[in-house]
Amino acid sequence: MTAVQHIPRKELSQFSENDLEFIYDQSKLKDFIGLPFSMANIEKQIELKKDSFDIKSRDQLVNVLQTQYLDVRQNEDALSQINRLKEPDTFSVTTGHQLCLLGGPMYFFIKIIHVIKLTEILNEKYPKNHFVPVFWMASEDHDSEEINHLHLFNKRIHWDHGQKGAVGRFKNEGLQEIFEDLTNLFSESRQEELMHVFHSFQGKTYGAAFRNWLNDIFSEKGLVIIDGDDRELKSMFGPIMKRELTQNFSNEIIQKTNQNLKAIGRKIQVHSRDINLFGLSEGSRNRIIKSDQHFLLDEKKYSREELLTKLENDPDMFSPNAILRPLYQECILPNLCYVGGMAEMNYWAQLKGIFEESEIPYPLLQFRSNVLWIDRSTKKRMESLGLAIKEIFKDTELIIQKYVDKTDANPLKEEELEEGLAQIEMGFLKASDEQKHLHPWIGAELNKMKKAVAHIKSKILKEKKKSQEENLLKIQKIKETLFPSKQLQERHQNLLHFCNANSYQSVIDNLYEGIDPLNDGFTIISEI
Q1: C-alpha pair distances (Å), 88 with each of 120, 125, 147, 335, 519
Q2: Per-residue pLDDT tens for 321-365?
Q3: Nearest-5° angle of CA 159, CA 161, CA 162?
């Protein structure tokens, strides 16, 4: 069993003022985003999207998704949702992520569950419409160093695949050996369930296997998984890619927005290029570079006409980068809202101009839920030390100092010491008011005294900490457990980390029960 509570994120040092604007007050970002996220603005966004996403686009999308799901096991729930997308009153809420090994850090699952829960709320609030949760597989990403590992039980599990190019097109050699090794890390009572989880990760490519695995976990919740690396979908996006090649329209717009963002002290998350497209081929994904009257791709020169012919005949050989990927997504989906992490929020804030130029509605943006999972043994240690959950978000030294002060029968009264030193200094200076030539000497002597007092204070505090050494080590252990490598737990630990004491499905179920997409707080899930 678990208990759930929420801590306001504005009370935690992990979030900057800029972060909190996305969470609490998007109206301050009105120049850089569309409508601020709110339930009331859902209806307005429906009207915007309804006018721009016609029946033909819906039919094309549904046909592609039906084809993509042909080889997916137990696809009935997903196909039912896909068929609903034909209807003009059906819209999507989307999140996306790289194809990390078994999801990578836990926030991968948090994003997906957040989107599922949000669509459930919308389906209840707006029964005349239907809302479908969509996961966008970032299968064209070629930075495999970000996806080829996971952290588990203080180990870094690494898939040494030796492949290059779009990760969704990778072959799966070596994965089963990794899954066997992973299974052996768990108790016998968990191994059978995990063998089923790992067995579901099968397909002709890494992307296909990833979809099978994810569908096995979330299809009953209505999740639809889309792979943008698709010829027909890219044909729908073809006119915008053609404009990018012929007019380089996106970069100039992005650069102007970046200047405006810098002017108000906001971060530039992704860098734009002269051409924000890649070329895709077997084993490679490389930038398209304009050079004089030619285009360079894979060390080959293309004339403008040759590249446009290639785009017309083989649109799947082109790939939008981080700048154009969101535009691609919104071009092919009847989407109302994108849910992402803070890095995603920051780069979406760079993009409004290219949406307006392309006459595609800019979606609502919502920052995803945050979750800290506290296992039973850690919870008991915190209780034995009297540590409140909110305290554990602070720096380790601050937690330790507060604990020492709280448990000290004879605390060092630093304010009284400071006040006493100030009075001594004032007294000497006043007494020598008619001998001002002594003031430099008095000041030097007082500085020596202050250093001696500081040394004494440091020595006393060190000894006090030494007497509490066992408990202070426990605090450090708690902090490292909940904030591994000084990161938020959700950004480091894989879901499997919690599966020796819990079943895989129960961890997902507890995340599902705990996450509230309309709660602005940091979600704490504690085992009890």
Answers
A1: 19, 18, 36, 12, 30
A2: 999 999 999 999 999 999 999 999 999 999 999 999 999 999 999
A3: 135
Percent of residues in the chain assigned helix, strand, coil, to nearest 5: 55, 15, 30
What's the rounded Cα separation, in Å, for the pair 453 and 435? 26
Residue-wise pLDDT for 46-81, tens only, equals 999 998 899 999 999 999 999 999 999 889 999 999
Burial class (CB in 10 A: 0-12, 13-18, 19+), 233: buried
At CB < 8 A and 24+ separation, what contacts does 499-505 make? 499/186, 499/190, 499/194, 500/186, 500/187, 500/190, 501/375, 501/376, 501/527, 502/527, 503/190, 503/193, 504/190, 504/193, 504/194, 504/197, 505/193
Spatial neighbors of 291 by CB under 8 A, at least 6 apart, are 301
Are 469 and 477 contacting, i.e. CB atoms less than 8 angstroms apart? Answer: no
- 3-class DSSP state of 519: coil
**pLDDT per residue as tens digits for the range 257-278:** 999 999 999 989 999 999 999 9
Helix (H) or strand (E) holding 217: helix 206-218
pLDDT at position 468 is: 75
Closest by CA to 109, choosing from 365, 326, 368, 337, is: 368
pLDDT for 26 beyond 90 = yes
Whose CA is closest to 319, among 98, 142, 59, 161?
142
Identify whether the C-beta of residue 206 lies closer than 8 Å to the C-beta of residue 167. yes
Structure tokens at 57: 């686009």
Question: How many C-beta atoms surround the C-beta of residue 517 within 10 A?
Answer: 20
DSSP state of 69: T
